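INFO batch 0412 | record 1 of 1 | parsing
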Amino acid sequence: MAGSWQGAHVVVTGAGGGLGPSVAEAFRAAGATVHAPTRGELDLLDEAAVGGYFAALPSLWASVHVAGGFSMAPVTETSLADFTAQWRINTVTAFLACREAVRRMRAGKAGGRIVNVAARAAVDHPGGKIAYVSAKSALAGLTLSLAAECRAEGIFANAVLPDTIDTPANRAAMPGADTSKWTRPEAIASSILWLASPGNATVTGTLLPV
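INFO prediction complete | emitting tokens
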């Protein structure tokens, strides 16, 4: 598969969100077979369901975890339920998908690529978003630990760190913002595609700002 997507199976979670459709389309355009479960098809917080989904795949080269969520509030206005919700949707979903992807890749004995979508907030740590920052920081750490553990098997793990993404939802939520500094989903998808590609023979354990 060196440099080619022919015969490569790729999972993309969160393919129905603002970034996910561009990621799934980038892989399809490259020639990969994309598995993009919808919320109705797969509950990413259901451990048994996630395990069953990955185990049923014919093979697996890459797994890209776009599913996530956002919230912002001062610390004194952040409830435990708010904090836990961000942890579950951003960190737990990616953990379960990463774990099952590694199992499936090990079964194939051909290595593989995992890409998580964290956030610039995971390294910049802005105020007013404590639940989100904590969850995405944990996802960044998870990625680095996974990369160290799986490098020798040829399973590479990286994360991209977008800031504000130029999506219809973000434009609607911030109508007065300067969108010239926002990143287009297609540009982020291009970076993810390269990190997950068979042609990436060296890069693992990277948190890539995009």
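INFO post-check: The radius of gyration is 16 Å.
INFO record closed
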